[in-house]
Amino acid sequence: MKPLTLFRAFMAFAVMSLFLVSCGEDTDILDTSVAPTVKLNESLGYITEDSEVLVGGNFSVYLTGTKGSNPMKTLTILEDGKAIDITSNRIAIDGNLAPANPLLLLQDKVNSFEYKISIAAHGFFGTEKYEFVVADEKGLTSKVALNITVVGQDVNSLEGILLNQSGPAGQGGLDLDTGASTGTQDSDPTSAEAEIRDEGIVDILTDQTWKQQISGMNGAVMKYIKPGQNGVAENFTFDNILYKEQISAMWNNGVDFNLKSEDGKRDVSDKVNKGDIFIVKKGEKYYVISTRQINITNDNNQDNYVFDVKF
What does pTM read for this prediction? Predict the structure, then answer.
């Protein structure tokens, strides 16, 4: 055989050998490691599926993890894809504040763990995704997830009609809990139930023009709610108020009345117009009222406001 032909045969054999060796090595390094497993367990007081939580509330899970091919290393709790800040003190594990997030799994916890975890839900209305992610020493992970929706207590709604105070006895006040018309004088037993009152006419002898002003009553305090002012969103609407907690949260955004009653004892609104929105606080209870109609009469004192009330 000629030398050149022998050389070519040798090179072909060498290339084929390298190919065979390479194929054998690929098979040898195939990773068949199994990831750890993590699950939510059913138990009284612990959730296993998407849930609703009242604003300011907590939810709890009974979480277990088991190693796969490798010892487990960490447990991480995510909200909206990010680890919950441990300094917020929102996570408790087995009754104690979590020391870290990710939590390092130690001792026998690298093989299996059981944790009863309580989390303070996000502090705003709406849904966030919470994930519980277990990672092993080789970086293999498994996770379970829940969608938690923060809601509030549903509001009560009613219609209330507030009459001109200068009309017949027994009118001029409004009970915001029932929508009932009340009197405004101490001698009238219904007056004790009212939260707001009308300010009557200018003067019974010289000017019977209806003032069309209102004020708080029986210790109730009133403010305006003005979209685009004092921290209230420009697109705020009365219809968007769905929960009691929304009403109480708006109190500090209210705009104070800047007028006084004739006797100087109470704050009084400007002239009330259709669409005006007010917030009322009596003790620890809050109401928001929207002026739907203003009805003016010419020959009697049955002038009135029609309010939509939520509380």
Answer: 0.77
